[in-house]
Amino acid sequence: MLKNFQHVIQKVKNQKTKKLAVAIAQDRHVLEAIKDADMKGIAQAILVGDKFKIATIAAELDMDLTRFEIVDEANNKKAALKAVELVSSGKADMVMKGLIDTASFLRAVLDKEVGLRTGKLMSHVGVFEISNFDRLIFLTDAAFNMYPEFKDKIDIVNNAAVVAKAVGVEKPKVAAVCAVEVVNPNMPATIDASALSKMSDRGQIKGCIVDGPLALDNALSEESAIHKGVTGPVAGKADIILVPNIEAGNIMYKTLTYAANCKNGGLLVGTSAPVVLTSRADSHESKMYSIALAALVADEINQNR
């Protein structure tokens, strides 16, 4: 099991180098991340976008563009489709959002002709290295599915398990977190959590262990779990935090990002290839970690084909 992003990067270096298609690459933080990823041997990038603007930013960053393939396309819609097509045609292993709004980028990802549809639910997985934890924490879904129904949560769990396994967690422990750790008929999320737990017990959800409802404290803290009498293999030892909705997830994601001593990356899965879907506010370091995670997931997907 990889315990931090340094270990993630080391694992990426030990596998075959993946190619990353970047949609509308003329973004300073994105190019900084691409430069770092190239220097660290994480991924090779194909930059799709306005060549002049890319070159202008690259010059400011002292970035050697001769190391990268550039596809000159000034039209954002066409550039996004071209970046996605590079992946669906096998010329790249993953795709990254650049200087384009999320809705337009996702339209390209879901394009019926060149997109990365699989028929499965797509979901976002955030990965956090938090200073006082001995493991990486996976958070889902804080960015894509707003109010997932029960059947959606099954897919979200399965998607997160793929990411966790790519990072070396053989049988990830999933905590379906709610405001409380008991089933309350007036709180639908606790009922969903209980049903997910029972499905896991019966082997209907494979490759991971799901328990819930768990409150966040007894999902992450063994001391809290013992104090509250919460037992089980997930209590206090969760790898994956399954949030009930986007509001809870988004608040937790941003609280960790801005108020905790941590590093993070994230990606969109459920597609035929990983999608690096970061916020414009994310640092170039966070974007680089996201690329590294995507490279591991791409390798996991390729091995299972």
UniProtKB/TrEMBL annotation:
Signal peptide: none annotated. It is an enzyme of class 2 (transferase). This is Phosphate butyryltransferase. Residues 76-295 form the Phosphate acetyl/butaryl transferase domain. InterPro entries: P_Ac_Bu_trans (IPR012147), Phos_Acetyltrans/Butyryltrans (IPR050500), Phosphate_butyryltransferase (IPR014079), PTA_PTB (IPR002505). Keywords: Acyltransferase, Transferase. The keyword Acyltransferase applies. It comes from Clostridium tanneri. It holds the Pfam family PTA_PTB. Belongs to the phosphate acetyltransferase and butyryltransferase family. Its EC number is 2.3.1.19. GO terms for molecular function: phosphate butyryltransferase activity. It comes from the Bacteria.
